[in-house]
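Narrative summary of target 7.
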Amino acid sequence: MSTLPYIIFSYLTVNNLKDKINHMRTFIPGSKTVLVADDDMNLRAFIKAVLERAGCSVIEACDGEEAVDKFLLNSSQVDLLVLDVRMPRKNGKDAYHEILKINPGIKAIFISGFQDDPIREQADFIPKPFTSQVLLSHMNGMFN
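Modeled conformation, tokenized:
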């Protein structure tokens, strides 16, 4: 019985694990504050948990209208927006455009379960569902 397949498999598995560990280490947010707006409270809770584990502070909003209101109250602290594209009362795109009037340099990541949304081509976009690694990778790209 040859040990070569086992050695190759072990090498690939260890390298894959090292890549994941190194990837997680590359995101060092410091004291970033992220405003997360999504009408799905379970997804908001997931994003909040991921970001807090990464050392971020999180401000939650259940729709675009609340996101704008909370941004107004916390505009000097918010470093990044994570906005669902489609929400009741005010969608993520409209909320973003209002927030841009307050802070033209604010960074945003848009999330959506609708793969055909045109914003996909115009902005940093993450399709739902996504993993914590995908979210942190996008954030890493925004801050590095």
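Strands lie at 33-37, 57-61, 80-84, 107-112, 125-127.
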